[in-house]
Design brief:
globular, mainly beta
Length: 160
């Protein structure tokens, strides 16, 4: 869970959001060693922010290799500015006329990796393919791109 800060460094009303990170047998949640942690409050760094953490062993039913159309669940980081070769962005799903339609809009966003309290500076920001993008996957792993082992670049097959 996160929230946007207003001009007085307080929570801006209406800007609460949550982020879900999916990783195969994730050992780390951001910079917290998750061994033995199953729930509770954890300090994540990032300018002294805290988060409620819940870890569950589950299967999303995602095959080891993803082929066909898939939805990007978490940002696909691309430090060199290029997407992994196994995915091709197609657009986003928008509600139109009572149904979902694939609209050829592809957004590349800047995604920051937090704040280092030790160095007192912001960690790098990278260009990333935005979550919610529909891609054509050709032999991809469940997570693709830079820092995929930490849950970035999670793909969910659409089965369409």
């Amino acid at each position: 869970m996160g929230l946007s800060l207003g001009p007085n460094k307080t929570a801006a009303p209406g800007y609460l959001y949550s982020a879900v990170y999916v990783a195969e047998k994730a050992k780390y949640i951001y910079y917290i060693d998750a061994e033995g942690l199953r729930g509770g409050l954890a300090r994540l760094g990032g300018e002294g922010r805290m988060a409620v953490v819940e870890i569950e062993e589950a299967s999303a039913g995602v095959p080891e290799v993803v082929n066909g159309r898939a939805l990007v669940l978490t940002p696909v980081l691309m430090p060199e500015g290029e997407l992994p070769n196994c995915i091709k962005p197609l657009g986003v799903l928008e509600e139109r006329g009572g149904g979902l339609e694939l609209v050829p809009k592809v957004r590349v966003i800047q995604w920051g990796l937090g704040f280092s309290e030790v160095c007192k500076e912001r960690r790098p920001m990278y260009p990333a393919l935005a979550p919610g993008t529909v891609v054509e996957a050709r032999g991809c792993k469940k997570n693709v791109g830079y820092l995929a082992e930490l849950g970035y670049g999670a793909l969910l097959p659409l089965g369409v």
